[in-house]
Design goal:
By secondary structure, the chain is an all-alpha fold. The chain has a single domain, classed as Orthogonal Bundle (MetI-like fold). The chain contains ten helices and no strands. The longest helix has 37 residues.
Length: 283
């Protein structure tokens, strides 16, 4: 029994390679984005026509674009903008979705049916289509990108929360809390939500990766971050006509986007394996 307990403790303490690799990849890109808030090698929006289309070198690590702007500085600043949009969208979507999911799991009946049908209806409008509709009414900008991505994420978190919370309402400790006279709201916040928080953290990590991709796509189409601010999607759009002449214009933002998304996905998988006892594997 003692040996089994020790082995179980070792398994719980072991950190899988997916978690380490994902944390390193995503963490390095997030660190660059945060550093850009206080320092970049060059001013990201500064034009220098004399240095236009300079290949990567010591002066410009990732080269310059057609306007002479330092691409590495733009990648750093673009990462901060992408992270801001992604975190804002996921935060708004998670708050609304988790609240709806908890209500659906607690009440059941027609309320649960209404929430699920609302989720189905929202899924019919992907982030891109929602952004196009918002842009047609309010104009392009990061706020509309945040709103479009957040709206798309509401049903995701609502479904995950409802599915995870529903069985807990029949558990012994929830029934005991109801016997003591606690209301549904208090039980949901104090007992149900803490027990599904690990699952929601994992889902939020994965959705953040998708949100960053969505922001890049919207900015690529001109619906997201607007000049003079920069984003990875806008940089990829600017580079598409000069791929043969200056491939480094697309290489740097493409690699940054790929590393961030891959890192967040690996981080989400690693967190799922570590936080969910049912999925924890012995490596």
């Amino acid at each position: 029994m003692a040996e089994a307990s020790v082995e179980s403790a070792v398994v719980r303490a072991r950190i899988g390679p997916a978690l380490l690799l994902g944390a390193a990849m995503a963490g390095s890109m997030i660190a660059l984005a945060l550093i850009s808030l206080v320092w970049t090698p060059y001013e990201p929006a500064a034009l220098n026509i004399r240095s236009r289309l300079t290949p990567p070198g010591l002066d410009h690590l990732a080269g310059t674009d057609a306007l002479g702007r330092d691409i590495f500085s733009m990648v750093m600043a673009g990462g901060a903008n992408s992270l801001m949009v992604g975190l804002s969208a996921i935060g708004l979507g998670a708050v609304a979705g988790i609240a709806l999911g908890l209500i659906a799991g607690a009440r059941g009946g027609w309320i649960e049916e209404a929430v699920m049908r609302f989720s189905d209806f929202t899924f019919a409008f992907p982030a891109l289509l929602t952004a196009i509709m918002l842009t047609a009414v309010f104009g392009a900008g990061p706020a509309n990108a945040v709103a479009a991505i957040a709206i798309f994420n509401i049903p995701v978190f609502a479904r995950v929360t409802r599915g995870a919370a529903q069985p807990l309402w029949r558990s012994g400790y929830v029934l005991a809390a109801q016997t003591l006279g606690k209301g549904m709201t208090r039980i949901a916040v104090s007992h149900v939500l803490p027990n599904i928080s690990a699952l929601l953290i994992v889902q939020a990590t994965i959705q953040l990766a998708l949100a960053i991709v969505a922001e890049a796509g919207l900015s690529y189409l001109g619906l997201g971050i607007q000049p003079p601010d920069t984003s990875w999607g806008k940089m990829l759009n600017d580079s598409q006509t000069r791929l043969a002449q200056a491939p480094w214009m697309a290489l740097a933002p493409g690699i940054a986007l790929a590393l961030t998304v891959m890192g967040l996905n690996l981080l989400g998988d690693g967190l799922r394996d570590r936080l969910d006892p049912a999925l924890r594997r012995v490596r």
